[in-house]
Design brief:
Blueprint: H1 6-23, H2 30-40, H3 45-60, H4 62-70, H5 83-98, H6 104-118, H7 123-136
Helix pairs in contact: 1-3, 1-5, 2-3, 3-5, 4-5, 5-6, 5-7, 6-7
Length: about 140
């Protein structure tokens, strides 16, 4: 994967969270889900390329990511976490643990912005708290 511009990464993270959100409601194969997603949500090549890295990476490491996230849910059960928040955290945690050229602080800030754009009023604070615990842990 070549160098992806910062603006493309922000858009890719948003698209990845949207696609993962949709996958939460279906039993679709991830490849099939991505194909359908891109039909309805066109994007520049750089955005699409990085979004696919994120979606495929999250899905490949889903059990590990979710098990790690559970350790940082202070007084919350996994079922209480909203789907937008959960997927924003998954993407950020995947970047923190598996993408070498993304700083943890950048991954956290980007997840907060995605949560602010698509989640509830409380989502950014919640996402920040969980990812901050994971960064320290």
């Amino acid at each position: 994967m070549g160098r992806i511009p910062t603006s493309a990464r922000r858009a890719a993270r948003e698209r990845a969270v949207q696609c993962l959100f949709g996958l939460d409601f279906t039993n679709n194969d991830v490849g099939e889900a991505l194909a359908l997603f891109w039909e309805s949500t066109p994007a520049r090549d750089a955005v699409r390329e990085y979004a696919e890295v994120l979606v495929l990476g999250v899905m490949e490491n889903l059990a590990e990511l979710d098990a790690t996230i559970v350790t940082a849910l202070d007084n919350w059960t996994p079922e209480r976490v909203g789907r937008i928040e959960r997927n924003a955290i998954r993407v950020a945690l995947y970047e923190m643990r598996h993408v070498n050229d993304v700083d943890d602080g950048v991954a956290i800030n980007e997840a907060i912005e995605v949560a602010r754009r698509f989640g509830s009023d409380e989502a950014p604070r919640f996402v920040n708290a969980v990812l901050d615990r994971l960064k320290k842990g």
